[in-house]
Automatic annotation (TrEMBL):
<dbReference type="GO" id="GO:0030267">
    <property type="term" value="F:glyoxylate reductase (NADPH) activity"/>
</dbReference>
<dbReference type="InterPro" id="IPR050223">
    <property type="entry name" value="D-isomer_2-hydroxyacid_DH"/>
</dbReference>
<dbReference type="GO" id="GO:0016618">
    <property type="term" value="F:hydroxypyruvate reductase [NAD(P)H] activity"/>
</dbReference>
<dbReference type="GO" id="GO:0005829">
    <property type="term" value="C:cytosol"/>
</dbReference>
<dbReference type="Pfam" id="PF02826">
    <property type="entry name" value="2-Hacid_dh_C"/>
</dbReference>
<dbReference type="InterPro" id="IPR006140">
    <property type="entry name" value="D-isomer_DH_NAD-bd"/>
</dbReference>
<protein>
    <recommendedName>
        <fullName>D-isomer specific 2-hydroxyacid dehydrogenase NAD-binding domain-containing protein</fullName>
    </recommendedName>
</protein>
<dbReference type="GO" id="GO:0051287">
    <property type="term" value="F:NAD binding"/>
</dbReference>
<feature type="domain" description="D-isomer specific 2-hydroxyacid dehydrogenase NAD-binding">
    <location>
        <begin position="184"/>
        <end position="331"/>
    </location>
</feature>
<dbReference type="InterPro" id="IPR036291">
    <property type="entry name" value="NAD(P)-bd_dom_sf"/>
</dbReference>
<keyword id="KW-0560">Oxidoreductase</keyword>
<keyword id="KW-0520">NAD</keyword>
Amino acid sequence: MTIKQKVLFLEKPNVDDLKQFEVKFDCIYYTLSTLEQLLIDFRTSLKDIEGIYCGWNGFGVFGGFRGKLLVHAPRHLKIVATCSVGYDAFDIEGLSERNIILTNVPSPFAFEAVADLALYNAITSFRNFKLYAENLNNNQYAHSGISRTSMLHGEFDQSSGKAIVEPVVGHTYGYACCKRDNLSPRGHNAVIVGFGHIGELIGRRLACIGMNIHYVKRTRLSESQEKSLGYEVTYHESLEETKDIADLIIIACPGTPSTRHMINKQLISSMEKPFRIINIGRGFVIDEDALVGGLKSGKILFAGLDVFENEPTIHPDLLGRDDVVLTPHIGSGIAENYRFTAHESMKNIEITLRGYDEKISRVN
């Protein structure tokens, strides 16, 4: 009888592929509790595992797969597979030293889904849709005309980020909301920081609604690459170069030491006019204390955040504001992406453990 290789699952994927995988491997479904317990299990019940399926959350609750976790990882461990495209929660150098392969999943479904969320926030930031929705959902009069008229005559308290609205009977044209004009995004300048594949997809969507696309990237695209985008773009070497023109800033860059707190108090103060900001990249690119200060001062008109500086903790002063849209890191959270990444992660594990001569999405 052949002994099956053991694979640890930190999350049990709800996909049909799992049944076939269970035939080939000894699948151990594990619920993380404490770091101490996991280290004990690494030495005992999990000592023979050869692969780890991290799913989406992986070892994030322990600060990632590094430090003690890596030092005490089972000695037969050959591969760690994450379903996400990002891998900043893993000690790449340490894994390489242990000859442990790390794989991720660059998913086309994820790229498109994240770009969709950026588009949603971009439109909301100009049209004040959140303010209207909150008022209509929470008021007692259940009347669209009263809601629209009341919001037109309402006030916006910048410090608290709350709309102050009293019922006003009438049928007015909703051209403004709490003294804030409802604007079309058309003709406004969108600055995309980080112009990789997701940045390009965001640019395409915003260009389709008439926005002028500017991008910030360490290296400019070639002339042929810019033309192949299918929409016009303007290049800037740094975000500071856009301080005179930015109406909307979208963070789509990776989290690195050089991008940490790229959005800070100094940069916010240097912007020539009030602007909107969206972050679908990495949370710590924005200094959230500075962001809150910008919202309270009115220098920042709107913030749409899917990632956070101290994730999973949310800055308390961002909660409950009508000029902020918060989503719990679900930019890529669609069923199509879930199924695709689960399939690819298990495929990476199978190819590695069985020694098949096939390509895997290897990080290190």
